[in-house]
Amino acid sequence: KKKMTESMTNYPLPKFSMLNFRTQGDMKFTESQRLNKATGKQDTYFDFHNEAGYNYKLMTPPCESRYPHIGEGGNYNRSKFAKTPMTSNILATLLKDGGSDRFKSEREDFFERLAELNKSGLDQMYDADIGGAATAARSKAARYYKTKTPEEQEAKARENFHKAATVPLKTQEGETNVTIKCKAFNRDGNPRAIRYVQPTGGKYVEMSEVPEVYSGAVLGMVFTMRPYCMSKDKYGITYTLVPDIIVYSTGPPGGSSIP
Asked: For residues 233 and 164, is the Cβ–Cβ distance under 8 A?
């Protein structure tokens, strides 16, 4: 098995115990001007902050995973959408149902809270008219619902803004899941460092070897919730993985890690 290299461990692990969804409070949409390191220009950045003014981070409870690509290089050359380093991600889809019953109610509460946070985030993005997307939704509602009152048109505009947003939390065919990911490679072309952690006696301890992880593995993931807006009809919320992954179990070797 591959040993973890020293260079990966030169910054502290997240304070996992501080990132429980029950203690994170509400999130606040912010807009700021910052220097874009890639272009060297000032850009507008959108963020969600917690009550202390830091980026809004959460840790998932232990969830059964599907198609985890959490090794070095993520899904590079393992998925038809990941033929180049730049389009490759470290990712896993976490399921609300399945896995151990021990954390069932924790998962149910977590997924319910995530839906509330998405709704609150999208409402704040609408109120801030992110990228002119709310203005576009309002003018569309005014055209489509001519017979309705201005208040009804406004309610429809907000509702349609929510419907058109992209969020990683999905419910399809009765299954609720969330896909959490981050870029698999840094700008310099090197694979992003990943650390694997196991809970041991109330502490989170970094694993000395890289685990082989399969579909069905039970994982905990830390992620940052961020608003984004590419255009007035392409916007939503992303969950950016912090690549320090809690591995509760590695899943059966028969479980494919390839979608």
From this structure: yes
pTM for this entry = 0.90
Instruction: Please name the amino acid found at residue 200.
Output: T
| Residue 153 region by backbone torsions, left for phi larger than 0, else alpha for psi between -120 and 50, else beta | alpha
Single-letter amino acid, residue 240 = T
Length of the chain: 259
Distance between CA atoms of 246 and 70, rounded to whole angstroms?
A: 11
B/e letters for 45-77, b = 16+ CB within 10 Å, e = fewer, are ebbbebeeeeebbbbbbbbbbbbbbbbbbbbbe
Q: In angstroms, what CA-CA distances link 228 with 113, 120, 126, 169, 259?
A: 20, 15, 12, 15, 27
User: Checking DSSP bridges between strand 28-35 and strand 42-49, what pairing results, if any?
Assistant: antiparallel
pLDDT in tens, 197-229: 999 888 899 999 999 999 999 999 999 999 999
pLDDT at residue 79, as a whole number: 83
Q: Where are the alpha helices (DSSP H) in the chain?
A: 104-127, 133-144, 150-164
Say what angle helices 133-144 and 150-164 make with each other, to 10 degrees: 130
